[in-house]
Amino acid sequence: MFHFNCDTCDFSRDIDYLPREYVFDDGRRMHMLQRHIWCAQCNTVTVAEAFREDSESREWRLERREQHRRELERNDFKHDFERDLRRKWIADSEEYDRNLTEWQSLRTRPQFCLKCGNEDIIVPEKNWSDLAHPVCGGTLKCTATIIFGTFIGPEPHKYTSDGKLIELGYRQGPFEGDQRKQLELWWPNDT
């Protein structure tokens, strides 16, 4: 959950990134990177696709991949599943790089607000960056709450490479009667 508070006026907003992914023509799926933005049409903080990983996230992922390779070379695991997890993590990370490169080559539409489709947006350079507040000239300070735990996550919304919604996601049960519930396309009670 990201929290935004203006240092000049009383603007305050909390947002969360809902799970979204791209589906390639051959059925492969890739997690949609998202970034908080200011949308001129919505006149608030909202979310857009991020076209690239921010440098810190990419650097962390590449360092982690090399660390796993070194651990595999040492081969001093107590359990086979530890070795298997590292191999899978490396393979998934390499596949993600290939998919991201392919997606970037397919993309034709510019970045836009995922809520209204507007392209008149202010995008911060980094994932956790503050934003300029065009309404009052202040700065929207960005903080985040990170929750750790194990849970069954929702099935993400699915999009084409150009960001067109093709299928709504869903949440897993238990719910009364049905074990699946449609995932909201936007945050509940958002105007």
TrEMBL record:
The lineage of its organism: Bacteria, Pseudomonadati, Planctomycetota, Planctomycetia, Planctomycetales. It comes from the Bacteria. This is Uncharacterized protein.
